[in-house]
Amino acid sequence: NYIKAFAPATVANVACGFDIFGFAIQEPGDTVEIRRRDEPGIVIADITGDEGRLPRSAEKNAVTVVMLHLLKHLGRTDFGCEVVLHKNMPLGSGMGSSAASAVAGVVALNELLGSPLSRKDLLPFAMEGERIASGSAHADNVGPSLLGGFVVIRSYTPLDIFSVPVPEDLYCTLVHPDIEINTKDARYILRNEVSLKNTIAQMGNVAGLVTGLMKSDYELISRSMVDVIIEPVRSILIPSFNEVKKAAIDNGALGCSISGSGPSMFALSRGIENATKAGEAMVRTFAEVGIDATMHLSGI
Ligand code: HSE
After folding, report:
1. Which residues cross the membrane (predicted)?
2. How many Å apart are CA 114 and CA 74, to the nearest integer?
3. How would you class 1 by CB atoms within 10 Å of its CB: exposed for 0-12, middle for 13-18, buried for 19 or more?
4. 27 catalytic, yes or no?
5. Taking CB atoms and a 6 Å cutoff, what residues make up the pocket around ligand 1?
6. Could you report the predicted ipTM of this complex, rounded to two decimals?
């Protein structure tokens, strides 16, 4: 009658793969507790760690919207439960915060119902949480948060998602500067048209990154962590973006870009020492312009 589930933060886009690449990190992440109750319907009993900012109504919060969709799909609208959400990451951080809540929620509910669906089948429900939170049902945060590791969304209609193996010695440094960017706004400023020249460059890097990951070719990973479409537009929202990126690369990172829709920035490095050095340099560079930043180090 009681289930507790954890879902991790994620890095979406991974430089060149807007809306199609994402990977999970170990920590932080959100935790959801659900408890069965006799009356039908879902009630949010408590939310911690959000400074009172998230909606408390079940129809408006990503964590419960996904549960309502799942109950409807299973024809279990008679079911009732009470939900407690523990948010362990900032909102509007580019760390897949809404995705972690949605995934933890849908996993907990599925478990409480006796696991009628497989993990992968929960994905479309978790995506509905993203629709509520950011206006777009992208899967590059919920996918890896649900399945772990590095995932590719080859197609959205129909949904086709698969995992890519990554080299053992690959580490991620995720650095969160203390500012907030709303994913909806960060999507709104993007251009709808892309030139053929940029499409070719981006496709080359997408192919290069996947191949580099699969062959443990760190040089190829490094050369492929280039985004000619999204990063030039969004980076203007992040103070000292170019300096922070340069600091990461000068201090041993293979590459560095925006995590999801930002403002967090991530670097990939070979080995934990390089990842630590790169992250510390990124934090120092933000500090030079008076921005506090928090670093999270993780294997992938
Ligand atoms: N692919 C999405 C975006 C991820 O960049 O808007 C948001 O976290």
Report:
1. none
2. 12
3. exposed
4. no
5. 12-13, 18-19, 96, 138, 140-141, 183, 186-187, 260-261
6. 0.99
- Residue with CA at minimum distance from ligand 1 atom 4: 260
The tens place of each residue's pLDDT in the chain, 300 residues long, gives: 999 999 999 999 999 999 999 999 999 999 999 999 999 999 999 999 999 999 999 999 999 999 999 999 999 989 999 999 999 999 999 999 999 999 999 999 999 999 999 999 999 999 999 999 988 999 999 999 999 999 999 999 999 999 999 999 999 999 999 999 999 999 999 999 999 999 999 999 999 999 999 999 999 999 999 999 999 999 999 999 999 999 999 999 999 999 999 999 999 999 999 999 999 999 999 999 999 999 999 999
The alpha carbon of 88 and the centre of ligand 1 are apart by a number of angstroms equal to 19
Q: Which one of the listed residues 33, 128, 130, 231 is annotated catalytic?
A: 130
Q: For position 158, what pLDDT does the model report?
A: 96
Q: How far is the CA of 19 from the centre of ligand 1 (A)?
A: 6
**179 C-alpha vs ligand 1 centroid, how far in Å?**
17
List the catalytic residue out of 10, 173, 183, 285.
183
Interatomic CA distance for residues 165 and 212, integer angstroms: 10
